[in-house]
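Example 3.2
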Amino acid sequence: MNDPFNLLDPDFLQQANAMRVVARRVAPAGRWAEHRSRDRGQGMEFRDYRPYSPGDELKTIDWNVYRRLGRFVVRLFEEMEDLPIYLMPDLSKSMWHDESPRAVTAMKVAIAFAAIGLDQHDRVGVLPFSDDLDSTIRPTSGRGRLPLIADALTRAAERSKQSPKGTDLSESLAKLRGLRMREGLLVVISDFFDPHGIEMMMKELKRTRHRPLLIAISHQQDREPEIEGDVRVRDCETGETQDVSVTSTVLEGYRKAYDAHFERLQEFARSRRGNLLFLDHETEVMKQLAGLFEGGTYVA
């Protein structure tokens, strides 16, 4: 297949396949996989008892308990099901702005998680976004599906690169919610700079039902810009310009606003037992992801 972004680099994928995502619990009604479900069924690992109800299969009755206590109870076992993984790489105009585009890093992170999920029998959906959510790459499973996901993601990136659009994460999250997909792990990969502001973004993030993993594609100069004096700055998405006199006081105020922005995102992620990871787009992706996968495992 055509792989202009080198998403299927064998060494990269080998490192990804050494990692695992382990869910504390997954929503019921999924497929067999490697995660413990909140449901109780006919799995392999005993979990609990409950009173017999008409319609229960006779083979589930624990006859030893009946002989001892004269009560009918059924054995409950832990179901092992899949964890749906939904990947939202940001392909908006600002992500293509740098000479080394952040969008490519976002795609590599998405492919890494797709490889991990497919390798452990999970369903993986890739939903690129800019000013809208692209929901054409539907959740799929099977280890052999990775090239198809990479190809679909490449085509989405080429469209975004040729006709770049602005960021609207809040609208994209609202559309995701409307898809009513089974609860899972939501990995949003973005610079998290949205013209609509942090309030709209937070409102929609809080309305999602999925466990969040927020991966901020960043650079040291995002927080510490190397500018001073009278400068004209240009919005890389809207093209609007503004003249600014950059002083030490202005820079300090900017850093405080930058930190407050990401502190809000961090607090949200922690409130949902999730994470916020800063990932430098000019540093090797897998080395940075390794810090998230302690001992090779990320617990979602």
